[in-house]
Write a structure and sequence with these properties.
Helix content is 37%, strand content 14%. It is an enzyme of class 4 (lyase).
Length: 391
């Protein structure tokens, strides 16, 4: 079966999204978490239907969306959401920022770096103080430092901003770790805001457990952020959900404008994704797995000494380049010397320096070309001539 990532480069270069307009045409853009795919057919049909109906007004009632999400969560994760409360927002960043403003102002907020860089901006926007509890490592694998989180709660932190699955490492916290976090949060009167945007992208063989489903303590201490934007490539359509297993946990005072920021086309697309998008998602997971294996092979052949562990979820690779003494931060180096754009690890907080995050949700040809160029640059030969010609 043909990979979902086999979209011609010349077609991609006609797109006007941030990924394809932020760099010159000779740069392979692999930093932002946007996939090189065509829309899933059920989503495309729903969007075409909306246009044919001239249904382009404000987003309305979210009941059909939450019903579809509930069915997906039940089927995919065994999570029953029938008693949950939902609030719609434009995207996870908007929802997270508004929750932080209400729940964390003047408080200490725990994050687990290296972690998604905007978390730091959410905390700053909320007038809160960031407490870094870096991930622990065990034989090259990342895991949450549960004892460190507990110590931070003991010291007064009142919110844990949990990246689950973790970005950029791809770590999926096991049920036992989430259970301990929930117990610690309940013991210390803390709240857990779980960003679960990458959850549908959990690899086969790995079990994702929604935080709110773990226990009564989790339900009483948690809020979750969900969106189809990463798994179905819908970021530009603007539709996400704030979820509370216990409706009482949703804070009062969320801005009146919050649901009005939701895109109506995004609302319809999100419902289609959760209701009808599972077969396409399964094909996507196959494509992600194939590219992860390809990246492992390319790294082994062309970049011996590079440390890379296949993610448990998602399509971003966290690459450890500390073996090489580069003359500039890694992302700047590769942009200049290899014409490959990646995200610089230093932006992800403590533990990130010397790393890059690379989005491998692209064709095998683009991925091979990118790693080949990076290897040539590290070997001192500068960038190779592009085998993939820009349009």
């Amino acid at each position: 079966m043909q990979s979902l990532f086999n979209v011609p480069l010349e077609e991609l270069q006609q797109r006007r999204s941030a990924k394809w307009t932020s760099y010159p045409e000779d740069v392979l853009p692999l930093p932002v978490a946007e996939m090189d795919v065509h829309l899933a057919a059920p989503i495309a049909r729903e969007l075409h239907r909306a246009i044919a109906e001239s249904d382009t007004g404000y987003a309305g009632d979210i009941g059909r969306l939450t019903e579809a999400f509930g069915g997906f969560a039940r089927e995919r994760w065994g999570w029953e959401t029938s008693g949950a409360a939902f609030k719609a927002c434009a995207d996870v960043a908007t929802g997270g920022t508004e929750l932080m403003r209400l729940l964390a102002h003047g408080q200490q907020v725990v994050v687990t770096p290296p972690v998604y860089p905007p978390f730091y901006k959410w905390i700053a926007a909320a007038g809160a103080e960031c407490v870094d509890v870096p991930l622990a490592q065990d034989r090259g694998a990342y895991r949450l430092d549960i004892d460190g989180i507990g110590h931070a709660f003991e010291a007064g932190a009142k919110v844990l901003l949990l990246c689950h699955p973790h970005n950029p490492t791809g770590h999926v916290a096991p049920h036992a770790d989430l259970l301990r976090i929930a117990d610690l949060a309940a013991e210390h009167g803390a709240l857990v805001i779980s960003d679960e945007i990458h959850a549908p992208l959990t690899a086969r063989g790995t079990e994702f457990t929604p935080y709110l489903s773990v226990s009564e303590n989790a339900a009483a201490t948690g809020l979750a952020l969900h969106s189809p934007s990463k798994a179905w490539n819908l970021a530009g359509l603007k539709c996400s959900l704030i979820v509370a297993a216990d409706p009482a946990v949703i804070p009062s005072g969320l801005p009146h404008e919050l649901p009005w920021g939701v895109g109506h086309l995004g609302l319809r697309a999100a419902e289609a994704a959760y209701r009808e998008g599972a077969p396409w998602l399964d094909d996507l997971l196959d494509a992600v797995e194939a590219n992860a294996r390809l990246l492992e092979g390319l790294s082994s052949d062309l970049l011996p000494g590079l440390r890379f562990r296949r993610p448990d979820a998602g399509y971003v690779a966290w690459l450890d380049l500390r073996k090489w003494e580069l003359p500039a931060p890694p992302a700047a180096f590769f942009l200049q010397a290899a014409r490959v754009a990646v995200s610089d690890g230093a932006d992800f907080g403590p533990g990130g320096a010397g790393h890059v995050r690379l989005n491998f949700a692209c064709s095998s040809e683009v991925l091979t070309e990118a790693v080949t160029r990076m290897a040539a640059a590290l070997g001192g030969g500068g960038a190779t001539q592009p085998a993939l010609k820009p349009a």
